[in-house]
Specification:
The complex is a heterodimer of chains A (372) and B (171). With 372 residues, chain A is mainly α. Chain B is of the alpha+beta class. Chain B has a single domain, classed as Sandwich (Jelly Rolls), CATH 2.60.120. Helix content of chain B is 41%, strand content 29%. In chain B, strands 1, 2, 3, 4, 5 and 6 form a six-stranded antiparallel β-sheet that branches. In chain B, helix 2 crosses helix 3. Chain B is globular and about 75 Å long. Classes of the chains: A mainly alpha (372), B alpha+beta (171). The interface between A and B is large, with 33 and 39 residues.
Chain lengths: 372, 171
């Protein structure tokens, strides 16, 4: 067997074993996924938190705060924010659901039919439309409650989640370099610089993308709160939990295309329950607020703060939301898009690295110039 | 502060740290850095062992950072289609290579191939940038030293160029 044929045989053998390993890996992943799903979700959440908090930790370090203390301050601050948000959002959600069910039971249907009959031409059966809307609202409430249940179940018990995610986040922030070094130590010299460059680039791009998303969501939440506050002042308080609704709109905005609609629906439902007169005007104004916020987001905020390199195709976004929902309920839908963004960055950077780096061995030359 | 938890929070000890600091101290780019700061640098360098004939980086690769040779020898060569066609220099212990890549990601201008089993330290641009953000004073000293080293190399190149021009003029 000559050298070329032997090399080809070696290459085919290497490719065969690589394929066997990939298939085996996929089978093992599918088999063990149900068992490791919860811990995987916690690691992904912790990774996202760690990535978002890194610039703040770096800033505190630049002010002379020791790294460990800077991380603790950040984690405690985020935990405080989450507790504050939950303590505001859950009572508001409960009271909204209570109000809605009370309204449904106490003849609100008649008022609702009146509202609808004022809004639609007389040729259309207003009672049928209103019954359908009520049925949809009922379904929505059931979905919200069951979604919340699956959200809590999907990340294990609340207690474990509250304890474990900050712990993971802490160690990811504190030992980020050790983790990278541990991985790099096992990489052969041939791929050392390539791997390191890819890791740096992935970290940098994901950080920009996630931090951009958080800033974008915060601005959308703030604008929604401001808009709903103005509507509350103009129309006798049609959306009392406007802060919670604004925060939901901001968070939902993380999910492209679907998020903005999800953000507007609770405000519209609550207004329908609270407003007795001028319902149509109020609904139009609420819609205008969300349209303005979304226009500002699409034309000003997103281009300024969110990295374009992670733009996902609309079909990918919809597919990811559906798959995320199937795998881990509401949390899966929520994390699906950032996770897909992260996967896209990883694939594009690996592909860039493999093209940019020369990985061939060198042969010494017989040329006399070699020793010049 | 004897509590292991607080020790973990306030420090990040490494067994190789002292040895690394001794090596790093001798590199011109890390001159004039206080010991405490050298510890920060020691945490962000990567130590690698290379066998004879292994490539540290190829001509045309995106530049990522510099290497400091602790022991062994490295040839700086030009290669074409997988074959070495010219050797520019042989670097030994305490020499460093690829420092221009600390400034930008431009392609490497030559290939570095290990001549004798080599122990090297890698110091990379993204870590220098992070150091500049986290500890601007330290980052500035390193950048100033880097500018001095590059300035010195430019002076040498100018002198060689003048000598070459004289040689050409004299036939």
């Amino acid at each position: 067997m000559d050298n070329k044929a032997y090399q080809l045989y070696q290459d085919i053998l290497a490719l065969f074993w690589r394929l066997v390993l990939i298939v085996l890996g996929i089978v093992i992943l599918i088999y063990i996924f149900p068992y490791v799903k919860n811990i995987l979700m916690m690691i992904i959440i912790a990774l996202i938190f760690a990535t978002i908090l890194t610039p703040v930790v770096n800033f505190l370090e630049s002010m002379g705060v020791p790294q460990g203390i800077a991380i603790l301050i950040n984690i405690l601050f985020v935990l405080g924010l989450i507790v504050l948000a939950i303590s505001r959002a859950i009572p508001a959600l409960i009271s909204t659901v209570e109000n809605l069910s009370a309204a449904l039971q106490s003849g609100y249907l008649t008022n609702f039919e009146e509202h609808i009959s004022k809004l639609v031409p007389k040729t259309i059966d207003a009672s049928q439309i209103s019954s359908r809307i009520i049925a949809q609202i009922n379904n929505l409430i059931v979905n919200i409650i069951s979604g919340l249940g699956s959200f809590l179940k999907s990340v294990g018990s609340i207690f474990a989640t509250i304890a474990i995610i900050p712990l993971f986040t802490f160690f990811l922030l504190k030992d980020k370099r050790k983790i990278v070094q541990g991985f790099i130590d096992i990489v052969p010299n041939k791929y050392f610089e390539l791997s390191l460059n890819i890791i740096y680039k992935i970290g940098n791009k994901i950080s920009k993308y996630l931090v951009g998303k958080v800033i974008q969501s915060a601005i959308v939440a703030f604008l929604s709160i401001a808009g709903l506050f103005i509507i509350n002042q103009l129309f006798n308080n049609p959306v009392p939990p406007y802060i919670t609704i604004g925060i939901i709109a901001g968070l939902a905005n993380m999910i492209p295309y679907v998020g903005p609609v999800v953000g507007a629906i609770p405000a519209l439902i609550i207004a329908m329950l609270n407003v007795q007169t001028n319902l149509f005007t109020v609904l139009v104004w609420i819609s205008i607020v969300f349209v303005i916020v979304q226009t500002l987001d699409a034309s000003v905020i997103a281009p300024l703060v969110v990295s374009k390199s992670v733009n996902l195709h609309p079909i990918t976004v919809v597919a990811v939301i559906i798959i995320g929902g199937k795998v881990a309920g509401i949390l899966g839908m929520f994390l699906g898009v950032p996770a897909a963004g992260i996967v896209k960055v990883i694939i594009s950077q690996i592909s860039w690295g493999l093209k940019a780096y020369h990985l061939k061995e060198l042969q010494p030359s017989k040329s006399s110039r070699l020793n010049t | 502060m004897d509590n292991p938890f607080w020790k973990y929070l306030s420090s990040n000890k490494n067994s190789d740290e002292k040895e690394l600091i001794t090596i790093i101290k001798q590199v011109p780019i890390f001159e004039n850095l206080p010991n405490k700061t050298l510890k920060d640098v020691a945490k962000i360098v990567y130590r690698r062992q290379y066998e004879e004939g292994e490539i540290i980086f190829h001509k045309g690769d995106p530049g990522l950072g510099m290497y400091i040779i602790i022991s062994g020898k490295v040839d700086i060569v030009e290669d074409k289609e997988g074959e070495i066609i010219r050797k520019y220099a042989t670097l030994e212990a305490n020499d460093f290579l690829g420092e221009m890549a600390l400034l930008d990601e431009k392609e490497r201008s030559a290939t570095a191939i290990v001549k004798e089993e080599c122990d090297a330290l890698g110091f990379f641009r993204p870590d220098l940038m992070e150091l500049l953000r986290k500890k601007p004073k330290t980052g500035n000293i390193i950048l100033y030293n880097l500018a001095r080293v590059i300035g010195e190399r430019l002076r040498q190149t100018n002198a060689e160029l003048i000598q070459l021009e004289k040689k050409i003029e004299n036939g």
